[in-house]
C-alpha cells in the first residue's frame, strides 16, 4: 500500500472500535416502544430487548462463558435468537449458529470443529442432540430453550433460558475490545466434503449492517426496508445471520416478527395479523407460501420480498407479482456476509405494467456501496462490462470473510490473487447490472458449447403448468454432457415432455437459446432435492440421475 501522512490523535481521544454493541444504540432511541414479536404469543418493546440482552450477558457470564469461548445456538427463529445475536459477541464470545438441518454426523463435526463450550438448545432439538452428546468433546453445559414447559432431558442442563434471565442482573457494562475479534461462526452446507466454518468479525458485521441500511432503503429503485416497515425473516437465523437483516432492523428500530418454525400457512397468518411488509427467503419457500391454503384467501399486495440463495425463475416471480408482491432479487454467498448485489429498478422499469417488470426484477442486480466487483476469464483477465462477456465474479468488500476456520489452504484458494472468487459466472452491462448465468460447476458443456442451466430453468418455468424445475448436465458419450430437466407440475395442471419442448422451441426461433439446449429428457417428479438451506441440490440430482 502507498504510504501516506497520518494525523496523530489528540491526547485522550477515544479510538472508536466498530463493535456489535454500537448497533443497539439507535433503535431504542428512535422507537423505544416499537415491538419485537415472537410467534403468536410473545411481544415486547425495544427497551425490554436491551434489558434482556444485558440479562443474557450476565446469565452467560454466570454460566462460565469467557471472552474467546464459543456459544452454540440451536433454535427456531425467535426473540431468543435475536438476543443471542447481540449478547454472545458483545461479551467477547463467539456465536456459533448451528445448522439444525445438517445430518447428526455433520452436526457432531461442526460443533467439535468449532470447539463449542456452551449450547443453547430448543426442546425440539433435544432428540437430535441427546444421542450425540457424548461425542461432543468440548461442550461443558447446556441451557434449555422452551416455548411452554421445559421438556425432560438427560443433558447436563444449567437451567431454563427464561429462568436464568429472570435471575440475572439487568445491568452489564459491555467492554471494548479489538474490532477484528471474531463475533460469529457458522458452517456452509456444501455438497462435497465436511461443512466449512465461515467466520465474521465485529468490524465486518457492523460495516455490512451500515451498507445494508443504505442499500435496502435509501434508493427509490430499491424501496425495501424503511423505518415504517414491519420485518419478518423467512431465511433461517442460523444461515448467514438471516442475511444480516436482524442487525439492520434492530439498528433502525423497526417492528420485527420472528415466526419460529417455518410453516407456510403460519407465515401467511403472521404476515396478515402483524402487517408484515418486508421479508426475504429462497425461491422454494416463496413457492410454498404462494401454494399455501392461507395464501389462497389472503391479499398479498404490498408484501416486499427479497429473493436469494438460488435463481428466481420467471414463472415463480410472475406468480408472486400477479398476487401483488413486490419482488426483488439479492446476490451473495455465505462467505460474503452475504449481500453484494440487489435488484435496482430504474424509471423505465417502473413505467412498465407490473407483469412486464418481472424480467428486470429477477436480474441479479447492482453491486451495493463499497462492493468492488468484476468478472474475469479463466486466466484471471478482467472482462468488459458490456452485457455480453461472461466470466467468474470476483469481489472485494470490507465485510467478506477472510478465510475458513482451521482451513488456511481453502481460504487461500477462495482469495486467489487478492479477490474473493465466487464460483459464479455472470455478465455485467454498461449500467453495472449483474446477471448470473450459472455456477461454474453447474454450467453444461455439450458438443463444445456452453449451456446455462439457470437460463433453461427460467424458460421452462414460464410455462403456466410448471411449478418448479431443475436442470442439470449429466455425462454423454457423444456430446460430453447433455441437459436433463426435472419438473414439478403446478397444482391441477398437466403437461407432457413434448409440450415443454415445443414451448422451448419458441426461444430457439427467437435466437435466445440454441436448439441443442433443449433437453431430450424431461422427467416429471413429485419433489426436487434441496440442501439444508432450501437451495436446489444439483450435485445430488446428478448423482441420482446417473444411478437410474
From TrEMBL:
Sections of the chain in a coiled coil: none
Q: Which keywords does this chain's UniProt record carry? A: Ligase
Report whether Acyltransferase shows up as a keyword of the record. no
Ranges for domain AMP-binding enzyme C-terminal come to 455-535
Q: Which domain of life is it from?
A: Bacteria
InterPro entries on file:
AMP-bd_C, AMP-bd_C_sf, AMP-binding_CS, AMP-dep_synth/lig_dom, ANL_N_sf, ATP-dep_AMP-bd_enzyme
Domain named AMP-dependent synthetase/ligase: which ranges? 30-405
Q: Which CDD domains did the record assign? A: ttLC_FACS_AlkK_like (cd12119)
A Pfam match: AMP-binding
GO MF terms listed in the record are:
ligase activity, forming carbon-sulfur bonds
Protein family: Belongs to the ATP-dependent AMP-binding enzyme family.
Q: What protein is this chain from?
A: Long-chain fatty acid--CoA ligase
